[in-house]
Design goal:
Shape: rod-shaped
Distance between the termini: 68 Å
């Protein structure tokens, strides 16, 4: 039996978006890239089922995209929590005063 020949462009795009989404998930942009990558990864997986090409890249793209979405959501929640807990510290006289205020707000 001859192995399938060809490329699955959707799989490549999903994998690239998943990896870039992971890298940029800390700034929440990765979540959007992750959603697009997840959609492409699922479509590529369906195509791989028909053609036999790109299954590994499709799975990699879908998984990394999903992780990027989760990481972006966690980053957004942590940023919101931090902003809520340090709200009083946003008008400091100096950076040192800001650090002291943040330390005090987070340890109380």
């Amino acid at each position: 039996m001859r192995p399938p020949v060809g490329r699955n462009g959707l799989a490549v795009a999903a994998m690239v978006l998943g990896i870039i989404g992971l890298i940029t998930s800390i700034v929440v942009v990765g979540g959007l890239l992750g959603v697009i990558g997840l959609i492409l990864g699922i479509a590529a997986l369906m195509k791989a089922g028909r053609t036999g090409v790109g299954r590994g890249m499709s799975i990699t793209g879908a998984v990394t995209s999903f992780i990027a979405i989760v990481a972006s959501v966690l980053a957004a929640v942590l940023m919101a929590w931090y902003a809520d807990n340090t709200q009083k510290c946003y008008q400091p006289e100096s950076f040192h005063q800001y650090r002291q205020c943040v330390h005090q707000q987070l340890t109380d």
